[in-house]
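tokens incoming
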């Protein structure tokens, strides 16, 4: 049966549409299969996958339409004209124009085909638009995912909020984003940014009231507030025109903790608002987790501090140390500006400070007392804490608390046990409302530790007092043991002192050569004399360590020693006395007496000790008399006072070791040592004293023949030799003084602060003399001399050390030192030694030059 032309055209349309629907159905099936696979993998379809799927569906629709069109046109051609007469390139528009022959059936068919083509093009355009919207939606989904990952990356969330608000304002094309947290009675926005064009800037901290504004409204109603028309909240930054303002409440277990604020210059659609809502929920969850983490960490810190406090209390019976440690540990738990621990004395109605701590200055002096009234007494008697949140509004009794002058908050915790009340623990702050209920409760728990410490401390003090008498009976034996230990340690100690004295003496002698002012030179002479006396004292320590009494062979002017002793003690008999409102009148009767032989420093020490004792014996002032004289073959120096005097019993024991009338201020050795020194000088001490009227000490020393044939060398005896000298000294004070001296004498000086520095600076033929210290941090002086002599065997060397008197000169010679000079050194001796060493005229017999 031959089909009619209309039937062929209808069949072609049906076949084409069927193929198009099958192609489109296949594309949709592929889309749903891909979407299901992505869901099973826990991810969203990527933009590339979506683009491919939508492109395939669109292509299927276009191909189906073209197939339908081609089949329809073929049927039309078979009906109207031969196929070979059609154009080589098929154009639907031309076909339509060609078909306008007036045949109603064909015209109607072509119009339906054109309508179908236009419908397909419209669908393709719509599909393209939907694809673009899907890209935007996908981008925002990815932005939400990235923000969620950012918020979940750490529990220290506040460190990420700046990055969070910047990402949010950029991804959602907003003009302002801020995170406000509720603090006291405000919403504080510390993390906020504004965006204008591509410029993103951080905002300053915003303090928004809880009584007005979009943030306050969201916090009060606990729901999202959206404003799309004026009036807008003007408290939020507005870098451009405002079209939408949104406030999302941030909730934690049903409680408002903050607000997420956003603002846009465009009307935000529902999809964007939904995204912002999801992000706000993520932020609230992250803030809640961070809050829980902070609380857990705070509890851990509190437990650690409490454990440290308990350990400190349980491992020590030293009450002061316990209280100092406790106040420091409490500050880690409860921040304060000042804290004190006081005990109450019922008899005197006074609170006394046992320990005090300042947040800025650390531990403060204790011992202050305050009357037992006011809040301290209230807390002490009531047995419960007293908290004054705002001191300026306090209307009760005065605070009367030491160190609380600037306090704006005061928390007083009583220290009590079941049986006894001891005192109070007091915290102050310069801020009002500084302490909360949790801190008040925590302080109550900590107070039990301090109460235990106070009880244990009292028991320990009672035990210590019971043992005090026993300890006093052991003092003599302990002192002997200390003297033995001192002898073992003397070598190291004297080395350090010799270094210090060498620096002082060297610089003073350099200044004496530079200054011409008589008063200044006299002042320097006193310093020089004190330094030399210190050096003599160090020598005595060294002799003690070596059990060597030394020799008494130097000429001494006794009248000069008396003047020196008065100069050295002027700060006691004049300055200190005047500061205490006491007047001590000095009577000098110092006459020139014949020269004796002895140790000037030792005898000066004796006179200094006698003058200080005389001043101590006149607490209310009086007369101090110092005199010198001669009788026969003896000379004397006397020190008299008009003080309290001594009884016969006391006078009989004053030269006994460890006997003292000064209590804790004395050790009972001054007069014992003085008597030993005078005895070594073949002299004696006579004492006259009347109780209530004063005391007179007189030192009698024999006049000995003095050989003045030896005259000190003058500048004319020193060879006029100049050289290049390398100084190796780690003590900066000594190095500077030595360099200045040698340079003043015309030498070229290069200094090194260590052995390695010296070896780096040394070149063969560059120096004439190397002067090195013995003990240095990086290498010993022996190693420096050995390595230098390996480079230049014939160079002159000098060992300059505070250990010189403990060095074997012969061994020093073998180890590379031409000569050993002791610290502290006198510039005249050093100048002569250096000059003769450079000139080659120094006697190199192994010895120590002092």
């Amino acid at each position: 049966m031959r089909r009619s032309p209309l039937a062929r055209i209808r069949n072609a349309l049906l076949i084409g549409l069927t193929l198009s629907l099958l192609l489109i159905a296949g594309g949709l099936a592929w889309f749903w299969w891909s979407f299901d696979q992505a869901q099973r993998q826990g991810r969203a379809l990527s933009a590339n996958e979506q683009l491919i799927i939508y492109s395939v569906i669109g292509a299927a629709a276009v191909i189906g339409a073209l197939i339908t069109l081609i089949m329809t046109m073929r049927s039309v051609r078979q009906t109207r004209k031969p196929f070979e007469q059609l154009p080589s390139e098929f154009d639907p528009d031309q076909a339509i124009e060609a078909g306008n022959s007036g045949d109603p059936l064909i015209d109607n068919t072509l119009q339906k085909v054109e309508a179908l083509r236009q419908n397909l093009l419209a669908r393709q355009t719509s599909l393209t638009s939907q694809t673009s919207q899907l890209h935007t939606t996908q981008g925002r989904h990815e932005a939400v995912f990235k923000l969620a990952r950012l918020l979940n990356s750490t529990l220290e969330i506040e460190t990420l909020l700046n990055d969070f608000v910047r990402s949010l304002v950029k991804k959602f094309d907003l003009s302002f984003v801020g995170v406000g947290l509720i603090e006291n009675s405000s919403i504080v926005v510390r993390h906020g940014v504004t965006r204008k064009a591509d410029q993103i800037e951080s905002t300053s901290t915003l303090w928004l009231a809880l009584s007005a504004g979009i943030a306050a409204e969201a916090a009060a109603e606990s729901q999202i507030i959206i404003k799309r028309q004026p009036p807008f909240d003007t408290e939020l930054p507005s870098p451009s025109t405002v079209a939408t303002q949104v406030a999302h409440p941030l909730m934690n277990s049903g409680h408002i903790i903050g607000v997420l604020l956003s603002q846009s210059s465009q009307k935000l659609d529902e999809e964007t608002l939904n995204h912002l809502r999801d992000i706000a929920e993520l932020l609230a969850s992250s803030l809640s987790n961070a809050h829980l983490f902070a609380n857990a960490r705070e509890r851990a810190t509190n437990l650690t501090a409490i454990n440290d406090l308990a350990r400190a209390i349980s491992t020590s019976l030293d009450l002061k140390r316990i209280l100092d440690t406790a106040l420091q540990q409490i500050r880690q738990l409860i921040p304060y500006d000042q804290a004190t621990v006081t005990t109450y004395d019922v008899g005197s109605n006074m609170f006394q400070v046992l320990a005090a701590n300042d947040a800025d200055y650390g531990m403060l002096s204790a011992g202050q007392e305050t009357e037992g009234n006011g809040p301290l007494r209230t807390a002490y008697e009531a047995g419960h804490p007293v908290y004054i949140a705002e001191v300026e509004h306090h209307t009760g009794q005065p605070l009367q608390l030491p160190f609380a002058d600037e306090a704006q908050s005061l928390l007083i915790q009583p220290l009590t046990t079941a049986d006894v009340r001891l005192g109070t623990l007091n915290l102050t702050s310069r801020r009002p409302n500084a302490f909360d209920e949790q801190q008040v409760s925590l302080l109550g728990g900590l107070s039990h530790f301090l109460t235990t410490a106070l009880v244990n401390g009292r028991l320990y003090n009672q035990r210590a007092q019971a043992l005090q008498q026993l300890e006093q009976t052991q003092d003599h034996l302990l002192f002997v043991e200390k003297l033995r230990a001192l002898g073992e340690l003397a070598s190291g100690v004297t080395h350090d002192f010799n270094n210090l004295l060498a620096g002082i003496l060297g610089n003073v002698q350099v200044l004496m050569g530079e200054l011409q002012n008589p008063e200044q030179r006299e002042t320097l002479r006193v310093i020089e004399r004190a330094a030399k006396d210190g050096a003599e004292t160090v020598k005595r320590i060294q002799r003690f360590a070596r059990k060597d009494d030394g020799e008494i062979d130097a000429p001494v002017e006794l009248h000069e020693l008396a003047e020196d002793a008065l100069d050295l003690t002027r700060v006691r008999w004049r300055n200190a006395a005047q500061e205490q409102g006491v007047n001590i009148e000095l009577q000098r009767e110092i006459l020139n007496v014949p020269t004796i032989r002895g140790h000037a420093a030792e005898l000066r020490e004796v006179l200094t000790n006698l003058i200080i004792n005389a001043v101590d014996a006149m607490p209310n002032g009086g007369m101090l008399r110092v005199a010198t004289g001669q009788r026969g073959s003896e000379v004397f120096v006397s020190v008299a006072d008009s003080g309290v005097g001594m009884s016969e019993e006391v006078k009989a024991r004053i030269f006994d070791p460890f006997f003292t009338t000064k209590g804790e201020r004395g050790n009972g050795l001054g007069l014992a040592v003085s008597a030993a020194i005078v005895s070594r000088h073949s002299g004696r001490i006579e004492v006259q004293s009347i109780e209530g009227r004063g005391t007179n000490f007189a030192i009698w020393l024999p006049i000995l023949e003095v050989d003045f044939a030896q005259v000190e060398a003058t500048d004319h005896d020193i060879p006029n030799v100049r050289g290049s000298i390398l100084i190796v000294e780690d003590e900066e004070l000594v190095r500077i003084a030595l360099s200045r001296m040698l340079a003043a004498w015309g030498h070229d000086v290069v200094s090194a602060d260590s052995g390695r520095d010296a070896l780096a600076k040394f070149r063969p033929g560059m120096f004439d003399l190397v002067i090195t210290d013995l003990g240095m941090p990086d290498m010993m002086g022996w190693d420096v001399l050995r390595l230098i002599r390996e480079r230049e065997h014939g160079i002159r060397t000098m060992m300059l050390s505070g250990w010189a008197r403990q060095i074997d000169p012969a061994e020093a010679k073998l180890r590379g030192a031409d000569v050993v000079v002791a610290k502290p050194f006198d510039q005249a001796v050093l100048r002569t030694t250096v000059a003769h060493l450079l000139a080659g005229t120094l006697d190199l017999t192994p010895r120590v030059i002092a």
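note: Confidence is low (pLDDT under 50) at residues 81-90, 546-551, 706-716.
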